[in-house]
Amino acid sequence: MTKPIIGIIGRRDKIVSTIDREGNIVLYDYMDALDKEECSYIGLITNSNYDYIDENILKMCDGILMTGGVEIKTYHIEIIKYAIAHNIPFFGICQGAQALALSTLTGAKLTPVNEENGEVIHAPELKGKEDLPKTVHKVYLDEGSLLYDLFGSIIDVNSNHHYLIPRVSEPMQVVGLALDNAIEAIEHKDKSVFAVGVQWHPENMESMQPLFKEFVNRAKIRKEVK
After folding, report:
1. What is the C-alpha to C-alpha distance for residues 160 and 127, in angstroms, rounded to an integer?
2. Which CATH number do you get for residue 171?
């Protein structure tokens, strides 16, 4: 059977060379996690205005992954809405989860993290790549959710995000909270629709590989029926 194709949305970032320039990039960490499953992947990159991506490219995708990044653009929201409308499994990580939440809301903005109370660390100081897998707080998952089915009621997660999801609306629901009630995980209310967003970075946690496996398995199913 031909492998499913996962479209990975590139993040806006600086490309350091003799002259600093901006571009769309995909970090190896996400591809490394996908490489552990049976799938192929392509980069979903846009123009310098960050406002357009060809629908014909999206039609090639059996699943779509949105990674962490620095800025949510209109085209991110359009891709998410396209994926859900066409039952393409969507997996949002960090900024991808935030974009998934905003795709259900009108005029909402993300909430900056306030670490002053010290109850939960959402944006720890990272000194090197070796710090990425380190867990810094717990997430409490709702019974009956997909994430609960995969990991149980309480998980330890890493973290590196500076904004919080304010809320979600139909068809999404909150399924995971931190101790400070920050929204950490969201899912589609219909479990047959894979639309999942997490604020932590599962690509850097070996214990989170089942989530990538489930995502790719859903993409395989999507490929068979499209």
Report:
1. 12
2. 3.40.50.880
β strands within the chain, DSSP E: 5-9, 11-15, 21-25, 40-44, 63-66, 90-93, 111-112, 137-141, 154-157, 163-164, 172-177, 183-188, 195-198
Q: Which residues does residue 137 pair with via DSSP β-bridges, in sequence order? A: 157
Cβ count near 211 (within 10 Å): 21
Pairing of strands 40-44, 5-9: parallel
Domain residues for the domain of 34 are 5-225
How far apart, in whole angstroms, are the C-alpha atoms of residue 18 and residue 164?
36
Strand pairing partners for 41? 6
Reference 10, options 86, 65, 88; nearest CA is 65
Q: What is the pLDDT of residues 170-199, one digit of tens each?
A: 999 999 999 999 999 999 999 999 999 999
Tens digits of per-residue pLDDT, 196-219? 999 999 999 999 999 999 999 999
Instruction: Tell me the C-alpha distance between 144 and 218, whole Å.
Output: 18
pLDDT at residue number 118: 62
On average, the pLDDT of the chain sits at: 91
- Give ∠ CA 185-141-156 in degrees, rounded to 5: 85
How many domains, in total, are found in the chain? 1
